[in-house]
Amino acid sequence: MKKPKHYAAELLGLAKRAEWPDNCPDALRAIQAAGSGDSKRAEALSTLIHGGFYPEAFFSMRCAVAIGNGDLVKARLLLNDLQLRLGTDKRVAA
């Protein structure tokens, strides 16, 4: 069974392939905090992200908070949706 740090690593990998990581350092910090189980820090950092400029970054914060809270079912669903949004889901590319 996957642990929160595995989901955070997957989310971080998606973030690094997207266009927004350099412009949203708080998003990356929130993802890393979620992976270490620090849900309070992940949630606090996620409030700094604004969806208008980088909606995927804002959307990924919901996933980071779910990971930090240990809600791995919700995290998996959000990761799948984020993959679709970023066009990295192999089922969509085929």
Question: Can you tag this structure with a few keywords?
Answer:
94 residues, mainly alpha, 6 helices, globular
Folded structure, characterized:
With 94 residues, the protein is mainly α. It has a domain of 65 residues. It is 70% helix and 0% strand. It is built from six helices and no strands. The protein starts with a helix and ends with a helix. The relative contact order is 0.19. The mean pLDDT is 70.
Q: Secondary-structure map with pairings?
A:
Elements: H1 4-17, H2 25-35, H3 39-46, H4 55-68, H5 72-86, H6 90-93
Helix pairs in contact: 1-2, 1-4, 1-5, 2-3, 2-4, 3-4, 4-5
In short:
The chain is mainly α. The chain has 6 helices and no strands.
Morphology:
globular
Order of helices and strands: HHHHHH
- The total strand number stands at 0
Helix share, percent: over 70%
**Class computed from helices, strands and strand pairing:** mainly alpha
Largest sheet: none
